[in-house]
Amino acid sequence: MQLLFHHVALIVQDYETSKTFYCEVLGLKILAENYREERASWKLDLALADGGLLELFSFPNAPSRPSRPEACGLRHLAFRVEDIDAAILQLEAKGVEVEPVRIDPYTQARYTFFQDPDGLPLELYEVSNTLK
Fold it and tell me: Which runs of E-coded beta strand occur in 24-118?
């Protein structure tokens, strides 16, 4: 069996705020947007440049999920970038706070973290063209 990445699904607290963040701040393209009346829920399908998908869902009164420190479950969502410095400048220009760049002690790759509107940790991981 060969497993390939397809998508990540996120439940967001404020649909419009998260839609703006992922589309306008991160620049993801909308593939489909549907309101599911029977669930009072939006579903937004967003395209990543490598063909992966990010799904955003809204649900009324969704419970908060503990995320720190080191709770079980999704730890963070990482995005691969070729130029981390340029990506950081783009985020900061849009008002996003970004942590200082760190170095992965095993791969020597550069990475950093920032948060989405719900506080989900997002990572930028710098990968050169030869290491994809």
Answer: 29-36, 41-47, 53-58, 77-81, 102-103, 110-115
Which domains, and CATH codes, for the chain? 1-61 (3.10.180.10), 75-132 (3.10.180.10)
With a CB cutoff of 8 Å and minimum separation 6, the contacts of 16 are none
pTM recorded for the entire structure: 0.85
Question: What's the rounded Cα separation, in Å, for the pair 64 and 27?
Answer: 26
Phi-psi region of 70 (alpha: psi -120 to 50; beta: other; left: phi over 0): left
Over residues 15-47, the pLDDT tens digits come to 999 999 999 999 999 999 999 999 999 999 999
